[in-house]
Specification:
6 strands, binds nicotinic acid, Rossmann fold, binds alpha-ribazole-5'-phosphate, six-stranded parallel β-sheet, 15 helices
Length: about 325
C-alpha cells in the first residue's frame, strides 16, 4: 500500500475517489460454495453472509482468519472540564496500564477469540481542548492522530478489531453523531459509565453547545472540532484497512461514532466494516440506522474497549469454519432438494 502524507483533511476526504472495492468474483464464488454445502440453501442465515463478506474483502473463495489484530486507542478529553464524566480522567491512563497488564475485559475476550491486542495511548497527559470553548483539535492535531491510527494497522492481518478508551468520550461520540446526522443532542446522549438523569441533561447541554460552535463544519472538520485523538486514530485505522482491503469489526457506540465522519464524507469508506454488536448506549441504535448497518450481536453490553467487536470475532470464526469445513452435497453423497 502506498504511504499517505496526511497533509490536509481535504486530501483524506479525496481518498474516497480511489478506493479498491471488494473482489466480486471471490464473493460470487463464496456464495456459490455456500449453496453447494450440505444444508438447505440459506439455512445458516447471517453466518453465510459473513463468509461471503470476508471472501470479498480477502479476495478468496475460502477466507481464513490466521492473524486477527485488535487495536485499542486511548485519549483524554478537554470536555471533562464540564463534569460530563462520572469517573475521573486519570482512569484512562490507569486502564491503559490495566490493558498492558492483561487485567481488562478486552484482554480476556481477545484471548478467547484469538486476537492479538495492541494498545496505543495518544498523548494522555495532553487532553484535547474543551469543544465548548473552541475546536478540540486543530487540523494538524487531528491528522497526527489519524496517522497514528493508520500506522498501527498490520496490513497483513486477516481481520482488524477496533476499540477505544477515553474517559468522557461518550459525550464526544454523542456530539459527533448529532453534528453528522442531525436530531437533538438528547437523542444521542446516554448514560456512558453511569450518568444519572441530571448527568445526562448536562451532557445534552454540553453537546448542544458544541453543535452551536462546530455543527456547520464538513464531516472531517467535525471529527477534528468535536472528536478526540482516539476517535481520529480509529478513523485513520479504518482508512488504512479500507485501502489495504482488510475487513474491520467496529465495536460499540463510541467506536462506531469515531468511524462515522468517514461515512458522512463517503459511505464507501466503511464498506469493509462490520459492527460487532449493538451497544446498550442509547445512541447506538440510531447510529446503526444512520449507517445502514446491522450489528453481529446484541448482548446488552456497554463497555467499549473493543469488547463487543472481540466477541463478534468468535461468530466470524464460526462462519468461516462452516464455510471452509462443511462438505458439499457432491462430496458427501447427500441428495439435493
Ligand atoms: C473502569 C472503566 C473501564 C472502561 N473501559 C471502557 N470504558 C468506557 O467508558 C468511557 C466512556 O464513558 P464516559 O463518557 O461516561 O466517561 C470510555 O473510556 C469507554 O471506553 C471504561 C470506563 C471505566 C470507568
Ligand atoms: O458502546 C460503547 O462504546 C460504550 C458505552 C458506554 C461506555 N463506554 C463505551
Amino acid at each position: 500500500m502506498q504511504d499517505f502524507d496526511f497533509t490536509s483533511l481535504n486530501d483524506v476526504a479525496a481518498l474516497a475517489s480511489a478506493l479498491p472495492g471488494p473482489d466480486e468474483h471471490a464473493a460470487r464464488a463464496a456464495r456459490a460454495r455456500q449453496d453447494s454445502l450440505t444444508k438447505p440453501p440459506g439455512s445458516l442465515g447471517t453466518l453465510e453472509d459473513l463468509a461471503v463478506f470476508m471472501a470479498g474483502w480477502q479476495g478468496v473463495e475460502r477466507p481464513r482468519i490466521e492473524q486477527a489484530q485488535a487495536l485499542v486507542f486511548a485519549g483524554n478529553h478537554g470536555v471533562c472540564a464540564r463534569g460530563v464524566n462520572p469517573f475521573p480522567q486519570e482512569v484512562t491512563a490507569q486502564m491503559v496500564a490495566n490493558f498492558n497488564a492483561g487485567g481488562a475485559a478486552i484482554n480476556q475476550l481477545c484471548r478467547v477469540a484469538g486476537a492479538e491486542l495492541s494498545v496505543v495511548a495518544l498523548d494522555l497527559d495532553r487532553p484535547t481542548r474543551d469543544f465548548t470553548a473552541g475546536p478540540a483539535m486543530d487540523e494538524a492535531e487531528c491528522l497526527q492522530a489519524m496517522r497514528a491510527g493508520w500506522e498501527a494497522v498490520d496490513l497483513g492481518a486477516d481481520v482488524l478489531i477496533l476499540g477505544e478508551m477515553g474517559i468522557g468520550n461518550s459525550t464526544v461520540a454523542a456530539a459527533l453523531c448529532a453534528a453528522l446526522f442531525g436530531g437533538e443532542a438528547s437523542d444521542w446522549v446516554g448514560a456512558g459509565t453511569g450518568s444519572d438523569a441530571e448527568g445526562r441533561a448536562l451532557k445534552a447541554r454540553v453537546v448542544a453547545e458544541g453543535l452551536a460552535l462546530h455543527g456547520h463544519l464538513p464531516p472531517l472538520g467535525i471529527l477534528a472540532a468535536l472528536g478526540g485523538r482516539e476517535q481520529a486514530a480509529i478513523a485513520g485505522a479504518v482508512l488504512a484497512a479500507r485501502i489495504a482491503r482488510v475487513p474491520v469489526i467496529l465495536d460499540g457506540f463510541i467506536c462506531t461514532a469515531s468511524a462515522a465522519p468517514l461515512h458522512a464524507a463517503d459511505p464507501a469508506f466503511l464498506s469493509h466494516c462490520l459492527v460487532g454488536h449493538r451497544s446498550a448506549e442509547a445512541g447506538h441504535r440510531r447510529l446503526l440506522e444512520a449507517l445502514g448497518k446491522e450489528p453481529v450481536l446484541d448482548f446488552a453490553m456497554r463497555l467499549g474497549e473493543g469488547t463487543g467487536a472481540a466477541l463478534a470475532l468468535g461468530v466470524l470464526r464460526a462462519a468461516l469454519a462452516c464455510h471452509d469445513g462443511m462438505a458439499t452435497f457432491a462430496d458427501a453423497g447427500v441428495s439435493g432438494g
